[in-house]
Amino acid sequence: MARILNIISSPRGEQSNSIKLANAVIDRLREKEPASFVKVKDLTRNPFPHLEEVHLNAFLHQLRNTQMRIGQLYNIPIRRFRK
Asked: Based on the domain organization, do 31 and 54 belong to the same domain?
């Protein structure tokens, strides 16, 4: 029996790639060892006000816009800066 600790730290919830990846890894581990125990520690239950999803999305949106402007300024293909 495996003991798995899943620490959730992304305030992006269902949009978080790290949460999706962790869930996929845990699913694979549980396929191999069905009796595995999973302990979930969700650090986002009592979020810090400045780290909520809405703030991170606004920051990332601004960052992508800045990257696109830099790409245009230096004639770097914009597609390099997209998701």
From this structure: no
48-74 pLDDT, tens digit each: 666 667 777 777 777 777 777 777 777
Element (H, E) at 38: strand 37-42
Show the DSSP H helices in 1-83 as ranges: 17-32, 53-73
In the block, residue with structure tokens 């909520």? 52
* Number of structural domains the chain divides into: 2
Query: Are residues 13 and 19 in contact, defined by beta-carbon separation less than 8 angstroms?
Result: yes
Contacts of 8 (CB under 8 A, 6+ apart): 19, 22, 40, 41, 42, 43, 44
pTM over 0.70: no
Q: Could you read off the pLDDT of 3-21 as tens digits, one per residue?
A: 999 999 887 888 889 999 9
Residues 52 and 42 in one domain: no
